[in-house]
Amino acid sequence: MYELLKKDGRAKRGRLHTVHGDIETPVFMNVGTAAAIKGAVSTADLQQIGTQVELSNTYHLHVRPGDQVVKKMGGLHKFMVWDKPILTDSGGFQVFSLAGLRKIKEEGVYFQSHIDGHKIFMGPEESMQIQSNLASTIAMAFDECPSSVADRDYMQKSVDRTTRWLKRCKAEMERLNSLPDTINKHQMLFGINQGGIYEDIRVAHADEISKLDLDGYAVGGLAVGESHEDMYRILDEVVPHLPENKPTYLMGVGTPANILEAVDRGVDFFDCVYPSRNGRHGHVYTKHGKLNLFNARFELDDRPIEEGCGCPACQMYSRAYIRHLLKAKEMLGMRLCVLHNLYFYNHLMEEIRDAIDAGRYKEYKEETLRGFETPED
């Protein structure tokens, strides 16, 4: 159940009650595709840096180690030793990204494994079954994520099919949650709004799926090549057509600036690979924007990545040392940068929640965006 605690303009401050604990929103979900954050980050680390929700990938875990293996091990929480909420995506985005290897039909999608090429079929029922085996807290509905530049005719047909698939997902999840051997009988289902950059298709789809009274609603198919302006325009149009009393999740977004803008438009769930991916390449986030620790100017810099930061990297190590580790290709360098970035994102969300609570979100957003543009002293 989702509680809307406060609104500040369109920004929402909420709390989602789940079987694995409460989620304070707005929230950034830390992405652990194959049930681990890339960069040698453990679930004990996630606890330390203030992670509320971990996100894992249905397709990747289905391929390896296999969702049946995870089920036999007691579900994803037990398998990866994590007692807080987990969201699993549906595999729909992987179908989109494996465009050269797939065939979409009404029953579902036929495609090839990216690991060994073996043929896989996934439809709404299969996606729900895999996610039920994983026993995540929140399962995402199986959808097609069409290219944001697909023509109107294709987009409309794709969205109509996604709606039909969503109804099948809902029916299958209700069936699975009633079975005696299901690990998590309280698994939640989030539906996904699609429609590319066609406002009218998006709005009609939002209106249609809102009638299904799901546990939450996501806006998918953005941050896949369209401009930031297009993304904000679509959010301005679509979010008011999704239920205010349910969580709104913007999938795969994004930069700190994207998050600040999307919160201002009523979004309260986010996920993105940026903090971990950038961290693995020595790019770290600060209140003054992003730094590349490979730069020579950090060779003798004895300051932490960010003054006053409470992350494990900043508590102990200098920019100079972390730069040395990165240059020497020592895994610790990568790990420290990823820990810092995830802490930065988690802490940013905490500040956002505090600002909404205090009724000063607009000012906070402006100050923070200005800070990103202002070089450090």
TrEMBL record:
Active site per UniProt: D89, D271
GO molecular function terms attached to this record: glycosyltransferase activity
Entry EC no(s): 2.4.2.29
Transmembrane intervals: none
Pathway(s): tRNA modification; tRNA-queuosine biosynthesis
Domain of life of the source: Bacteria
UniProt: Zn(2+) binding residues: C309, C311, C314, H340
Keywords, in A-Z order: Glycosyltransferase, Metal-binding, Queuosine biosynthesis, Transferase, tRNA processing, Zinc
Pfam families (UniProt xref): TGT (PF01702)
Binding-site residues, substrate: D89, S90, G91, G92, F93, D143, Q194, G221
Residue segments, region RNA binding: 252-258
InterPro entries in the cross-refs: ArchSynthase1/Queuine_TRR, TGT, TGT-like_sf, tRNA_ribo_trans-like
Domain tRNA-guanine(15) transglycosylase-like span(s) in chain numbering: 10-372
Cofactor list: Zn(2+)
Catalytic reaction annotation: 7-aminomethyl-7-carbaguanine + guanosine(34) in tRNA = 7-aminomethyl-7-carbaguanosine(34) in tRNA + guanine
Cofactor binding annotation: Binds 1 zinc ion per subunit.
Classification via NCBIfam families: Q_tRNA_tgt, tgt_general
Reported function: Catalyzes the base-exchange of a guanine (G) residue with the queuine precursor 7-aminomethyl-7-deazaguanine (PreQ1) at position 34 (anticodon wobble position) in tRNAs with GU(N) anticodons (tRNA-Asp, -Asn, -His and -Tyr). Catalysis occurs through a double-displacement mechanism. The nucleophile active site attacks the C1' of nucleotide 34 to detach the guanine base from the RNA, forming a covalent enzyme-RNA intermediate. The proton acceptor active site deprotonates the incoming PreQ1, allowing a nucleophilic attack on the C1' of the ribose to form the product.
Record note on quaternary structure: Homodimer. Within each dimer, one monomer is responsible for RNA recognition and catalysis, while the other monomer binds to the replacement base PreQ1.
Record-stated family: Belongs to the queuine tRNA-ribosyltransferase family.
Protein's name according to its UniProt entry: Queuine tRNA-ribosyltransferase
